[in-house]
Design brief:
Layout: H1 2-9, E1 11-13, H2 21-51, H3 58-86, E2 91-93, H4 94-121, H5 137-141, H6 149-184, H7 187-207
Antiparallel strand pairs: 1-2
């Protein structure tokens, strides 16, 4: 009986669907068409850039990254979404849900980063001195002949947004954990929460 409970606890139900029965299959085939189109177009871009030697340049390498990122992001999301649309029972395991959430966030963040670097690569270059220990966007901006104010604003806005979401999400989660521990007043729960938060916080600080 305990085994069954542990199995059931790993299964999550998806409730974010409110689709009339007459729209189920049209929506499914629309998403299928979108997914197949995305696969075909992104693979075609990759093959074209790999085969054509004249396209072996930084800007087109970024297009490759964008296509690979697009393939991964949509493959993680759309097939599962299509399966849930035509299914009457919409379940997913906790591990699958975590993987899907991870790739959804990674897909979105990577797309923004690739586009930001793409803006940098398009700038005409006048300088040849990198004033840093490694190459980053700020170093590349300094090589440009043009005004890079727009690039700086976009990069700063994205960085602030990314860090605000990250730090804000962690702070909100820590607050909720602390609130639960304070209400429950369970010593074992408090110790477990302290160990989890402490190890997580150490990892986060190392990453920063």
């Amino acid at each position: 009986m305990e085994g069954n409970k542990s199995i059931l606890s790993d299964i999550l139900e998806i409730q974010g669907f409110d689709i009339s029965s007459e729209f189920t299959y049209p929506l499914f085939f629309l998403l299928l068409f979108v997914y197949v189109s995305l696969l075909f177009s992104n693979i075609a871009i990759l093959v074209l850039i790999i085969i054509e030697k004249s396209l072996h340049q930084p800007m087109y390498m970024l297009f490759c990254n964008l296509s690979v990122n697009d393939l991964i992001g949509n493959t993680v999301l759309l097939p599962q979404l299509m399966a849930h649309i035509i299914s009457t029972e919409r379940f997913i395991t906790y591990k699958q849900c975590v993987v899907q959430a991870f790739y959804s966030h990674m897909f979105g963040s990577a797309s923004h980063m690739i586009l930001m670097i793409g803006l940098t690569v398009r700038l005409p270059r006048c300088g040849s001195l990198i004033q840093n220990a490694y190459c980053d966007n700020a170093s590349l901006f300094k090589l440009s002949c043009e005004n890079v104010s727009i690039n700086n604003i976009y990069g700063l806005f994205f960085t602030v947004l990314l860090f605000s979401c990250s730090i804000g999400g962690i702070a909100a989660t820590y607050f909720r954990i602390a609130l639960v521990c304070w209400i429950k007043k369970n010593k074992e729960l408090n110790n477990k929460a302290l160990q989890t938060c402490a190890s997580h916080l150490v990892l986060y600080l190392i990453m920063l």
